[in-house]
Amino acid sequence: MTDLTNGLPELGEIREGFRRSGRHTRDFNMWLVDRSAPTPDEKEILESVPFMQGEYDFSTILGERVYSNRTLSYVFEILDRDYTHRKTIQTAVENWLMKDGMAPLYDDHAEFYYYMAKCTSVDTEDSSGGLTVNIQFTAYPFKIGEFEEGNDYWDTFNFELDTTQPNQYQISGSQTITVYNTGSTGISPKIIASAPMTIVKNSVTYNIPSGESQSETFRLETGANPMTITGNGTIQFLWHKELI
């Protein structure tokens, strides 16, 4: 296993772990020694035709790949020679992680993102010097940006993954704009309009009501999303980027 604690034997500062439901693993003096977050498995739709070489792959028939939930695994060490005390800590950790269903999991390794995850197991093993804790989560396949797209938080900006763009537009008559989704999957944004408007995107017309609305039929595909908006007032697109 890879040592991710950067100096566990020296008992320095606990550097990494995760935060969930208002608590962090360092609150329990848990030293991270291994993390596994493999990419999710694709939901493949394959059809084989007799006498055909290979097979048909309909997995991307909707325009993008679809994934199953992913598995996140962690191994921690709790250094405590007092048997009674570490068993109390064990009970506290088990109840902390197993009480919730799907909830945000903030892994220090994925700064400014979180997973929607449910803890499926907490397995512990005693040793003479402490406790080994194996934790497993099942999670939504994409990690989700902590901040809405279009924010101006310069300290969180990543030149490899992000783009600068407004998320609110002043419309007077008809205007063509391009909204960029730099995530790995299509998103249905929340739309806030000060007056009724229409959006033409990919030759499809969408009627946008005044106020807040959201529909799975209107999606921002990955990459550039050119559209023409007609109306008078302001319109805002709110969403959180999702990445593998």
Based on secondary structure, the structural category is: mainly beta
What is the average of the pLDDT values?
90
Number of strands: 17
The level of helicity is under 10%
Output the helix-strand order: EEEEEEHEEEEEEEEEEE
Q: N-to-C terminal Cα separation, in Å?
A: 23 Å
Spatial shape: globular
Which residues form runs of ≥5 with pLDDT under 50?
1-9
| Radius of gyration from CA coordinates | 23 Å
Strand percentage, roughly? Answer: 35-45%
Largest sheet: 9 strands, antiparallel
So how many helices?
1
Report on this structure.
The chain is mainly beta and 244 residues long. Helix content is 7%, strand content 44%. The chain has 1 helix and 17 strands. Strands 1, 2, 3, 6, 7, 8, 9, 10 and 17 form a 9-stranded antiparallel sheet that branches. The radius of gyration is 23 Å and the shape is globular. The N terminus is likely disordered.
Task: Offer a concise description of the structure.
The chain is mainly β and 244 residues long. It has one helix at 83-98; strands at 18-20, 23-24, 30-36, 46-47, 56-57, 70-79, 103-107, 113-127, 130-139, 143-145, 168-181, 190-193, 197-201, 204-208, 211-213, 223-238, 242-243. The chain starts with 17 loop residues before the first strand and ends with a strand.
